[in-house]
Amino acid sequence: MKKIIYLFVFICTLAVLSSCSEKSDPDYDSQNFTSIYDNDQFSAATTPIDFKQTADGGYIVLGERRLDGPNFRGVYLLKTDKFGKFEKALEMDVQYVHPVGDLINVGNLYYFFCMNASDQQAQLVSVDAATLTATVIPVTGGITYPSAASQDGNSLLLLSFNHVDKLSMVSRHDVSGALSGMDEPRKFSIGAGDEVDEPIMNHFLRTGKRFPFQVGRIPGGLYYFNGFENYTFSLVFTDLADDGADGVVNGQQENGGFSAVYPLGGNKFAASRFNFGDNYFLPNVNLSTTGTSMSELMGGNTLPELVSNAPVRIIKAVVKKKNVVVYASDTRSKQIGLFFYDEATGKFLGSRYLGFSNPFEVAGVMQTTDNGLAVCGTTYLAGRFPRICIIKLSEEESGTVIK
Amino acid sequence: MKNFCCLLLCLLLATAGLAQSRKTPKLPKFNKNKEKNVFLKKQWWLAFKAGPNLSGAKVIRSYSAISPTNYEPTVIAKKYRNYKDLGAQATLEATFYFTGLSLSLQPTYRHNRFGYTNNYSWTDSENPENANNRLELKYVQQQKVEYFDLPILAKYEKMYNKISPYIQAGIYTSFLINANKSVDVSGVDYASGGENQFKNERIIVGASDLFAKKHWGLLGGAGIYLNQGNVRFNLDIMYKQSMSNIASTKNRFGSDRLSGVGDTMDDMKLSSVSITAGCLFPLRFLGRNFRSTDINK
Fold it and tell me: Closest to B70 (Cβ–Cβ): which among A10, A34, A40?
């Protein structure tokens, strides 16, 4: 009888204890992770440009890699599973250099622009994420030096630079690389003189300041690009019906302007600007899409914790059932800062800093299908080797940021 | 932690005090004829014991924040340093004895230390002319965890004169009190013009969020009682094996400082071997003539 009682007590205790123990959960593993994609080559350097979540829940990263020979950076693609674990990488031929974001998803394929190293002609590349195979598609329109791209429905918008005629050019393409809805790219003069394109060339060669080139469209409305126009780094609005701007928000030559814009509807934008190294966030600002205005007069929230002329990424997201605008940028403490603002009012809601011990720099941020946030960036392993990283925050964890 | 130790000490002193408080003990009636008295076959014992332990980790599933792209993950795999780092534990034991068998509750404060190392290396093997382009790093991680254990054990003992060897086995649940983790990074940099050996400042983080708040396991061991007067001294060796994961699956990457250097917790089970020594006080039959050896007569 005594033995039966002992056995009964033992079994009951075992059942209770095992029911409340910590169990491995693949959901947790995909909701929260930090992955740093290392290469054991001393001279290897890979930095991300943009990333997207793929149909299998994993991630595809468009990046650039240091090349031994050419002045430009090579193309690097990386695919991970949904847990952030490395699956495949592709180093494209050194003939193709200078990839630019956005990485665009149309149908089952991902697209981005790069250029031919020998003649600087823009090339469209389609990527099958499942096999990580890339197909190069020539771009029509005589376009050189691609600077930025974005999606416009099933079309692709491209901002480029014409080194010979000193032009910023905006073009729209279909996925075959052909111009779509226009006979030739729209042209915007950056001004005459040899010295005007020097900072732009330094951007392409990675020997000088990197400019936050951007192109996009206000949903259902005007197109815009953030680039050089009339000697100044400006936010330019255009209907793409013809050459020239419909409206311009001027910066301060190459020393001021917008570091990122995100259209919220109508003339309302979430934006950030830089001015002689200082950074300002404008989470809810009305921009005039006609006429001429000045970005330096727009004020904004000062962020002295950010590096000089900080790169900024802006997305819309739903966090804790609130529509928010998320800013991601680089801090002086070598972390990636996430700043959350109410989309409707621009009110500050909270911040979160990612990365520690080694330096971290932001390349992209997105809301994932599980309503979490993913941040892609560069970290410097051992304080010196640039490597791509992805930091994933669960819906619950990103919600804790909102006050 | 301090509060817990104070509580443990107070309980021990109070118990010992109660046990010895009779100034003029009278022999209880039921103690006059020990051979025939069935009550002598039952006894409550209260004990305090303490000693060192050694810990080891058994990995259920390995995780790393570093995801290699051109080499095998095994190159940077963690190598656990099992049963090398000394910890300690203290136990307050309440045991009910009945005809050789005992049921024992042994609340324990346990401090475990265990660690692992991993190595990273970057070379310029694709450019042999740059053979000096080389960096080697060694990471030494150490984890210190403190638990409050609630074990329940069945014990069987056999008396030989004043010596009673025993075996015991049972089950326990552990509640995390505190945890911290340190990472020492050292290395050799051959690229900076010579063989530059360096050691970075230690990274120490509070790691309570990285460990499961509770886990459970099985334990067993053997020991020996030395019966002296109406008290017993004991020395035992115990093996504990957690049966559930001791890492927090939810907060695996919860420390930016650790994941920033590529470190993250594995899913693992913790085992430990402890040696404890202590003293047991009877709570019944405290008459002058009672001896701890009486229980087996």
Answer: A40
Question: Residue A357 belongs to what domain range?
Answer: 311-403
Least CB–CB distance from B134: residue in A34, A38, A42: A42
Question: How far is the C-alpha of B14 from the C-alpha of B20, rounded, in Å?
Answer: 10
Enclosing domain of residue B255: 42-296
Q: Which residues, listed in sequence order, are joined to residue A315 by a DSSP beta bridge? A: A326
Interchain CB distance below 8 Å, A357 and B214 = no
Domain count, chain B: 1
pLDDT at A347 over 90: yes
Q: Where are the beta strands (DSSP E) in A251-300?
A: 256-265, 268-275, 278-286, 291-294
Give the residue-averaged pLDDT of A210-223.
92
The CATH number of residue B120's host domain is 2.40.160.20
Give the phi and the psi of residue A189 in degrees, each rounded to 5: -70, 135
Q: For residue B15, is it within any domain?
A: no
pTM of the model: 0.86
Q: Which of A14, A39, A85 sits opposite B70 (nearest CB)?
A: A39
| Look-up of token digits 């076959």 | B41
Mutate to test the interface with B, among A42, A46, A388, A394 (most CBs of B within 10 A): A42
Confirm whether A50 is domain-assigned.
Answer: no
- Please name every residue paired with A35 in a beta bridge, in sequence order, or none if there are none: A390
Tell me, yes or no, whether B19 lies in a domain: no
pLDDT at A246 over 60: yes
Cβ partners under 8 Å of residue A241, min gap 6: none
A380 interface with B at CB cutoff 8 Å: no
Domain count, chain A: 1
